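Project channel, design review

CF: Before we commit to the Gracilibacillus orientalis constructs, I'd like one complete example in the thread so the newer folks can see what an input/output pair looks like. Taking Multiple sugar transport system substrate-binding protein.
RD: sounds good, go ahead.
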Amino acid sequence: MMKKLIALMFILALSVLLVACVSNHNSTSNQDTDNSEDGTSTETEQEETQSDEEEEVELTYWYWADNSEYSNLMQDIIAEFNQTNDKGITVIGEEYPWDGGGYSETLFTAGVGGGGPDVAAFKLTSTPLFTANDLLVNLDDYINNWKDKADIEENLYDIMKSASGTENLYVMPWNTQILYMYYRPSIFEKAGVDVPTTYEELLTAIEKTTMDTDGDGNTDIYGFGMRGATGGQEPWGSFIHARGGDFKNMTSEEAIQGMQDFIDIYENGYAPPSATTDGFNEIIANFKSGRTAMTVHHTGSSAEMVETFGDDVSAFPFPEGVGQWTSMGDTNNVIFESTEHKEAAFEWVSYLATGKGQEDWTIATGNVPVSTRVQEMDHFQNDKFMKASIEGVPFAGILPIKDTTTEWISTVWPNTTASALLGDITAEEAMQQLHESLHEE
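CF: and here is what came back for Multiple sugar transport system substrate-binding protein:
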């Protein structure tokens, strides 16, 4: 009796198994039709997806830190992400020195050699080299399907695209530095001018804040702390764009007029005589000593400005004319094409872009957030220098990234501009030379 019972149970189990197999075979045979009709994934696909979600993933992340404080901060952010993400993702942070840009070369060499990280901190200027060698993941689909896409200013996405010279996104925004105009409220009050809201008002303010305060016939305060040495191309670019010019065609009438405005400021004595060779240290020293009423920089110098002047220093975004532009510094993130965990990698870079990692990094470092949600936090809105920076994000930009850009910045721009300021060449001749040198014509 017992043997018969066991036999019957075996036959029943076998029958159930056969029915299941037939059912599964029919489901598999019809999966193309089913998916096209209602988008339902097959049982096999669901199992694979579930398996991927449950799989523990390790990501290697390369970054640099400007100091030990930032190094510890990044490790804390990584630890918090590892503890709080619910997708089994563990980020392993590996710090490399910036080394005057040598970091990017190390990253490229590792990527080409197949030994690069899954994810890395990145500078936009390296984008063409990396994309030309197919090293970076195209982020278009990830960002288009991302719930936080609208939390980042559209202009930042456009800048990321322009860096690659394509209509595709290969770089994930992280944090920025946006140039604005510092000014001294007490000097503005003495000169009887308001904070400029238009480009023409700015030119007027530069003229009126140039003053002989003691009546000895010599200028004591110059309206604008002009930077004629390397780095000066960034504030200069704001003048070119304010007249309606741009970097694509620096020989246009609008661009030439912007250069003429720049020359006029110097020739009319509204900038210090040393402006042709003044670099960062000089423009900051001139402003802090009270020699200039305005100068251009970013939040990196705001603490020392407040330390020097207390409440008698403030900022405004470079005002709009026919056009509007200000220079943006950047630190971003990229995902390497070689990674086997692209979805997990996007979780990490999005955490840095709009998540808690964005808050922690930008609050501690003083960099400008890319997340509009974070920008609206009291910490940033109550800081007048941050507010000026944030107001500049929609019209911020970068110089064209070309093989000629480095030489153009370091040599061509300062030498050509100095010649124009000193009257050796005209604005038109200067812009022709600058255009041809940058665009190799």
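RD: helpful, thanks. The CA atoms of residues 242 and 324 lie 5 Å apart.
CF: The chain is about 50% helix and 10% strand.
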